[in-house]
Design brief:
little secondary structure
Length: 125
């Protein structure tokens, strides 16, 4: 409880003197301990300032409207049926062929044959 009481007393003392501990007005600075602590001024409330508004580039939105249109494309066609009667005229030209083999003989008598049954005469015939 003693520590808490010292803390409150010191806080009130510092608050009353606005940041100068152990005496007011900065006279409590002891140079043989080093640099003096910073001095605090009471806060001042300034009026609220307003900057000009910052505008972002506009967001682009696309709204699409769709409508359907039917366009009829007529492509007429016609078919003609042609019935053809084909007549085939066949012409025949019969032809026969024959073959003849000929054989020719010629007999030449080159003397009188010898008759073994007939005795030969004194002159050999």
């Amino acid at each position: 409880m003693l520590k808490y009481t010292k803390f409150i007393r010191r806080s009130l003392y510092m608050h009353r003197n606005w940041g100068y501990p152990y005496g007011g007005g900065g006279g409590g600075c002891l140079p043989h301990y080093g640099a003096c602590p910073p001095q605090y001024c009471p806060p001042q409330m300034l009026p609220t300032q307003y900057d000009p508004p910052l505008f972002s580039p506009p967001q682009q939105f696309v709204k699409t409207n769709l409508s359907n249109t039917v366009v009829a494309h007529v492509h007429p066609s016609h078919t003609t049926t042609v019935n053809k009667h084909m007549i085939n005229h066949q012409h025949y030209f019969p032809h026969t062929e024959s073959c003849v083999n000929e054989c020719c003989e010629h007999h030449t008598m080159c003397g009188v044959p010898h008759n073994p049954c007939c005795p030969s005469g004194p002159f050999g015939y």
